[in-house]
Amino acid sequence: MTKQPDVSDQVEQAADPADRRAPFASPMSEDAVLLSRIILAQGEIAAAGSDPLQVVDVVTRRAQELTRSTGAVVEMRDGNDMLYWSASGTAEQHLGLRLPSDGSLSGLCMRSGQVLQCDDSEEDPRVNRDACRKVGLRSMLVVPLRYGDRGIGVLKVMSPYRNGYTPQDVRTLEMLATLVGATLALAMDRAALQTDVARRQNAEKHAFREKAAIATRIREVVANERLQIVTQPVLALAPQRIVGVEALSRFPSNPTLPPLRWFDEAGKVGLAVELELAAARKALDLLPQLPAPLYLAINVSAQTLLHPQLDALLQGHPLSRVVLEITEQLQPPDYPRLSERIAALQRQGLRIALDDAGTGFASLRHLLHLAPDIIKLDLTLTRGIDAEPRRQRLALAILSFAAETNASVIVEGIETESELATLQALGVRYGQGYQLAHPGPLAAHLARYPAIEDGIG
User: Fold this and answer.
1) Angstrom distance (rounded) from CA 447 to CA 302
2) What is d(CA 277, CA 152) in angstroms, rounded to the nearest whole number?
3) What's the CA gap between 250 and 230, in Å, rounded?
4) From residue 4, how far is each of 122, 128, 160, 411 by CA, in Å?
């Protein structure tokens, strides 16, 4: 087999690398010239601005020129690899090359923080020989790019010849790396900050657009009355008679979006009161269809309960047959104001129900600070009550509290015959849930169950 000629053999072996460089000059004059050239390079690097890619592109090109190399590259650590981030000359075609940090001179330089010189990649055990052959280098200089104690990457220059670099080249690269390390670090920090700011601005723009879309959707529903009301009956359990119905909102324009989500989103865009009042207005249209003494229960937040438009909405309706259910999720901080408002409505004959009682400390605070006519036990307490004595004891405690405060108790979420039997055994008089009836048209409930004669009490 014919041996391929070594590229280094194409150069006279007697030729010293220094012979291919500038004529002899004194060390001081060489350093002075070198410093002036590096200062010029630093000016160009500074002019590259805050874009790290522009900075490193200048660095690689200038490093190649100052050391009279055939190629230069800035490598950055990426996990366990070293990545060709910027390249010039013969190395440019390998931009994006990824090499394992272990077993490479660049990785060793990054770990040690020292300038490393390789005079012959075919003989140096520290290098990745296959990678050197791939990029066409035979000798190289690698210097760490640092800013204080922070390792940023490495700057590498390369030559296709053995013994391609002199001590002067080492000083050149060291000085250049010292000057550009801080510039590159600051550029990377600014770029990261700008990216973070841009990301936040984009997120804010997206959130703004999303809120605007939600607000538009809800305003259209309110303005065009595009919500429907279904009802779920509340039964006196022993005689299985209707005492009242709870009005529940449905949104045909987007039936896949749960009703609670509509009200949650309305709260996020400041339209909770508008949507709740629209739902209440629609629900009150059903009251004339409901035979006396059956009541109509409407869900409202504390904010809507305190709103003056609610009075105008209720005007002209028989308030003794209206129940306003205050949701437990809202935790009003102004209990005195809310209590005063509730008392004023109760004096007009309207009744107040506390919804979702028994679900947490907030509901217990409501029970203590407010004076509801009706306490509704949440389905989270009801579910599995037939098999869990602790739930039964909690239900008994609330039943006892209600009796002492002259309030009625309605249990929500009754879904099995066993739960229904257990609740009746505990003394629960009123309830609602899928075991009794699913939400649906008012007429269907009235056809299925007879109305109670004396109302809830």
Assistant:
1) 34
2) 60
3) 7
4) 15, 21, 15, 92
Q: Edge-to-edge strand order for the sheet containing 116-118? A: 98-100, 81-89, 71-78, 150-159, 139-147, 116-118
Q: Is 171 helix (H, G, I), strand (E, B) or coil?
A: helix
Among 47, 38, 92, 45, which Cα is nearest to 67's? 38
Residue where a domain stops, chosen among 173, 194, 215:
194
Query: pTM of the entire structure?
Result: 0.60
Residues 6 or more apart from 57 whose CB is under 8 A from it?
48, 86, 88
Tens of pLDDT along 2-12? 334 444 444 33
Residue 69 CB contacts under 8 Å (≥ 6 apart), including other chains: 63, 89, 157, 158, 159, 164
Whether cis (ω within 30° of 0) applies to the bond prior to 291 is no
Which residue has tokens 């204080």? 148
Identify whether 3 is part of a domain. Answer: no
Secondary structure (3-state) at 67: coil
Q: pLDDT of 187-242, one tens digit each? A: 555 555 455 556 766 777 788 888 899 999 999 999 998 999 999 999 999 889 99
Q: Which two tokens stand for residue 187?
A: 């550029």
User: Scanning the structure block, which residue is given the tokens 């590229």?
Assistant: 7
What tokens does 446 get?
């009235």
Measured CA to CA, the distance from residue 52 to residue 4 in angstroms comes to 41
- Residue at 298 is within a domain: yes
Question: Residue 92 belongs to what domain range?
Answer: 22-194
Q: Is residue 216 part of a domain?
A: no
How many domains would you assign to the chain?
2
Q: Going by DSSP bridges, is the β-strand pair 241-250/228-236 parallel, antiparallel, or unpaired? A: antiparallel
State the burial class of residue 392 (Cβ atoms within 10 Å of its Cβ: 0-12, 13-18, 19+). Answer: middle
Asked if the structure places residue 15 within a domain, the reply is no
At position 250, the amino acid (one-letter code) is R
pLDDT tens profile 247-265: 999 999 888 899 999 999 9
Strand ranges (DSSP E) for 149-252? 150-159, 228-236, 241-250
| Integer Cα distance of 10 and 221 in angstroms | 84
